[in-house]
Amino acid sequence: MTIPKAELHLHIEGTLEPELAFALAERNGVTLPYASADELRRAYAFDDLQSFLDLYYALMAVLRTERDFADLADAYLARAAAQGVRHAEIFFDPQAHTARGVPIGTVVEGLARALDGSRERHGVSTRLIMCFLRDESAASAMETFEAARPHLHRIAAVGLDSAEVGHPPVTFREVYDAAAAAGLRRVAHAGEEGPPAYVWEALDVLGVDRIDHGIRSMEDPELVARLARDQVPLTVCPLSNVRLRCVAALDEHPLPAMLDAGLLVTVNSDDPAYFGGYAGDNFDALRDALALDEDTVRRLARNSFRAAFLDGEEHLRARYLAEVDAYVF
Ligand code: ADE
Ligand code: ZN
After folding, report:
1. Which residue has its alpha carbon closest to ligand 1 atom 1?
2. What confidence score (pLDDT) does residue 134 get?
3. Which domain holds residue 80?
4. What is the pLDDT of residues 63-85, one digit of tens each?
5. Does residue 326 lie within any of the structural domains?
6. Number of domain units in the chain
7. Regions of the chain short of the pLDDT cut 50
8. Sign of the dihedral through C-alpha 207, 51, 148, 116
């Protein structure tokens, strides 16, 4: 569906399509343990978040140079634009690259090269969100934040991702405080596989502006009331939730109940190369599985721009919202 929308939950490393992975492997002299892009694609069957993350981190071996990161981001922006994305807030995982000897500057400046030309080339405005890996230590997160300081003018927010269960938000209080002091916005994955308690912590300890996923919040009525009262945006990723078996099937997704509860829900793609679709595909799949009416689809699209980190560019937010209102199905 090409209704204008903002994508607020998108891991750039999760946009690495098998064909691009093979092209970059060849360019960089990396050998992949798959015979072809089709064989690689057949490996995309996951039991849970960890089984996905194992393949996701392994494939990053093909990303080595600024040009690789620029090509990856440019390919994503072209696909996103074709599905109605007008604004994209893009996660990246610096530790997954620095651990392989790729400097953080290579990652940020490579991505920035594609993002800087995005409005002209693709008609998509962008923000960059630097995520800390929660299955690494708090010290590693802080070291990453310090290494990123020369690049902070390119970064709008920090986030928290990777294996959730057993890795509560509270561990990262100090680095989130440092990010806030540096003027950055804050988000965190919480309530994807982990319990509602992690959503509370992300809100009350890390001071996040949005919750990524948050679907398990529905198990805690007090939390639902809090999220509704404060209109905390939730960046929900329907196809991801099904592929990672957080939700049994799309027609059992809690999104309608979340909307009924008055939550500020948005629809996003997470890792579209792995989970079967980009932002517009997620809208299509939801509408088909849940028989969403046009008003609901328009509400979801409006929510995405309401929740975007477009501070300082309110004229853009207003323009995008007007585009949503003018959209004809
Ligand atoms: N990194 C990439 N995709 C993720 C997800 N869905 N949850 C946690 N970490 C991730
Ligand atoms: Zn995610």
Report:
1. 162
2. 98
3. 5-307
4. 999 999 999 999 999 999 999 99
5. no
6. 1
7. none
8. negative
The pLDDT assigned to 289 comes to 98
308 CB-contact burial (10 Å; exposed 0-12 / middle 13-18 / buried 19+): buried
Catalytic positions, please? 192
The CA 328 to ligand 2 mean position distance, Å, reads 30
Nearest to 77 by CA among 131, 15, 128: 15
Distance 14 CA to ligand 1 centre (A): 9
pLDDT at res. 293: 97
What pLDDT sits at residue 24? 98
Q: Determine the pLDDT at residue 318.
A: 98
Q: Is residue 161 part of a domain?
A: yes
User: Looking at the domain assignment, is residue 322 inside a domain?
Assistant: no
User: What pTM does this model have?
Assistant: 0.98
Per-chain mean pLDDT for the chain? 98
User: What region, left, alpha or beta, does residue 245 occupy, with left being phi > 0 and alpha being psi -120 to 50 degrees?
Assistant: left
Best CA proximity match to 201, nearest among 230, 237, 176, 231: 176
CATH assignment at residue 240: 3.20.20.140
Q: Which ligand is nearest to the CA of 56?
A: 1
- Compute, in angstroms, the gap from residue 17 CA to the centroid of ligand 1: 16
Structure token pair of residue 30? 């990396």
> Which H helix or E strand runs over 58?
helix 49-59
Q: Which atom of ligand 1 is nearest to the CA of 14?
A: 2
